[in-house]
Amino acid sequence: MAPAAALLLLFAQDEPPPLPADPPPEPTAEPVPPPPPLQQAPPVVAEPEPEPPPGPPPPHMSEGRLLVALYNTGFHWGITPGVVFQDGSAGFYLGLRFAFGFDTGSVIVVPGILGAGYFTDPNVFVGEPTLRLVLPIDRFAPYIEGGAGAGHVAGTVDKTGAALMAGTGFMVHFSPRFALGAEASYQVITGTNFKGIGVGPVIAIGF
Prior knowledge:
With about 210 residues, the protein is mostly beta strands. It is built from two helices and eight strands. The chain has helices at about 5-15, 65-70, and strands at about 75-85, 90-105, 110-120, 125-135, 140-155, 160-175, 180-190, 195-205. It is rod-shaped and about 160 Å long. The longest helix is centred in the first third of the chain and has 12 residues, at about 5-15. The N and C termini lie far apart (about 150 Å). The relative contact order is 0.16.
């Protein structure tokens, strides 16, 4: 072998082995975009309700009418002393009334209870539910009323029957709790001879 060829072979044997090739780069994952922000629904604005058309103004209540309403609505009571005429003779009459009224506008409705004594010969006592209708005219208050209950005639022979009453009168109101007036009433007790007409003043006090 020629010396040059031998020298080349020697250098070829001393050459280091080739380095291994680098592995191929791994594919990088693309970043995931963040989700879009949630869109909130616009707030619902309640539309204002349409205002009702203006109506007529409430009727004006005078001071006197107000006094009548303040007395007759709610609980009140009254005392009625007077004179009763029965079979041509006169006697003393005393009535006590408890009532609770309701104002309906033009008329005041007043249900109540009446207890009364007719001190005649013979004496008569009645107890009856009543209903009064009051028609206010400023502080002047006329009324009509009626009632039905039980009556007792205390005579030589005691008798008890149905008591029927009808009456009318008026009141003049000076304050929400005080009024004066007058009334007349006709009282009958069935099954007896009692038929009395009572007239007298009324003293009324409210609470």
